[in-house]
Design goal:
Elements lengths: L1 H10 L1 H12 L6 H16 L8 H4 L2 H31 L10 H17 L2 H6 L6 H18 L1 H4 L7 H11 L5 H12 L7 H11 L2 H4 L7 H9 L3 H17 L10 H9 L8 H22 L22
Helix pairs in contact: 1-6, 2-3, 2-5, 2-6, 3-5, 3-6, 8-11, 10-12, 11-14, 12-14, 14-15, 15-17, 16-17
């Protein structure tokens, strides 16, 4: 991908050579508009993240203003290049050259198909590659906005929706290259306790703690997000802990995606109020502490927690679920 990026940047020089040649050969300023159209098309093909991606976005005044700014910036750039070419032509006393005006236009236009064959902006962005910092900033801004819009249908699901329905909806929404942004957006939205979103929380905990999600490590801190979603609900924490224990044992290299040990211990020492039987609360606290130790061991660090662990409570001899 890095080799492709270098080739694209080299081929992009053709884009700028066209107006320089046109100016050097003494063509009229009317060609500036033709070159501007080519430059704008190049931007739309190679940098789609800088343009509205849906018809609905194109209908907004903000999108038109942004597009107009892009066009005007390209018009200015072409004008500068054309002026430089004419200036060089005047210094060299070249005068008007008998050249087909389609030739410099073709030189610039050739950059579009050649660059597109080498570079797919969306594919490259999914792998973390961008042509420059400006393209990265534009992609991240658009991706964050798209993530916020994409999770709205999930947040509108009824609290008591069937698990199968919610799980299918979660899998569909998060089956994208920007799943990490969407999961982060969901975690932030569910931090608001105004609605329980019980079925959605449960489905997200299941999804984020699946081995095929954790093992590749493509979704940073997925286990930490799942813990944030489950925290405050003892039933969800009881669902989370055994799955997390199995995953940290199977994939210790993904320990950085788990909640930090101090946080696990803090929750274990101060479980929220619940009507869950005392012995089950005790088991949950023990499980959280065990998970903290497992994460700590996987990270290869010595215990650095300053939070005191609560003493283990005696467990009754007989238990009921």
């Amino acid at each position: 991908m890095l080799t492709r990026m270098r080739l694209v940047k080299g081929i992009a020089a053709l884009l700028y050579i066209g107006p320089l040649i046109a100016g050097l050969c003494g063509f009229g300023w009317s060609m500036v508009f033709s070159f501007t159209a080519i430059f704008v098309v190049w931007l739309m093909v190679l940098r789609p993240e800088q343009w509205p991606s849906t018809p609905a976005e194109w209908l907004t005044a903000q999108a038109w203003l942004a597009a107009l700014a892009q066009v005007l910036s390209q018009l200015l750039l072409v004008g500068v290049l054309f002026g430089i070419g004419r200036g060089l032509g005047g210094l060299a006393d070249i005068g008007t050259v008998d050249l087909d005006p389609l030739l410099p236009l073709s030189v610039s236009f050739l950059a579009i198909p050649l660059c597109r064959m080498l570079w797919d902006a969306r594919e490259a962005a999914s792998q973390g590659y961008f042509l420059d910092d400006e393209a990265e900033a534009a992609h991240l801004g658009n991706a964050a906005g798209s993530a916020a819009s994409a999770i709205i249908p999930l947040l509108n699901l009824p609290d008591m929706a069937p698990d199968a329905t919610v799980s299918a909806a979660v899998a569909e929404v998060l089956d994208v290259s920007t799943a990490d942004l969407r999961l982060n957006a969901l975690t932030a939205a569910l931090a608001n306790p105004s609605r329980s979103h019980e079925a959605l929380r449960r489905a997200l905990v299941f999804w984020a703690t699946e081995p095929e999600i954790v093992a590749p490590g493509q979704i940073a801190e997925c286990m930490a997000n799942a813990f944030d979603i489950a925290n405050g609900n003892l039933d969800l924490l009881r669902l989370y802990v055994p799955r997390a224990m199995a995953l940290i044992s199977a994939f210790p290299s993904r320990a950085a995606d788990f909640p930090v040990p101090d946080r696990l211990r803090a929750v274990a020492n101060d479980l929220p109020a619940s009507d869950l039987p005392a012995h089950l609360q005790s088991d949950l606290s023990d499980g959280l502490r065990a998970l903290a130790r497992a994460v700590e061991a996987a990270l290869g660090s010595q215990p650095v927690s300053t939070l005191p662990e609560a003493p283990l409570r005696a467990k009754p001899a007989t238990r009921t679920a």
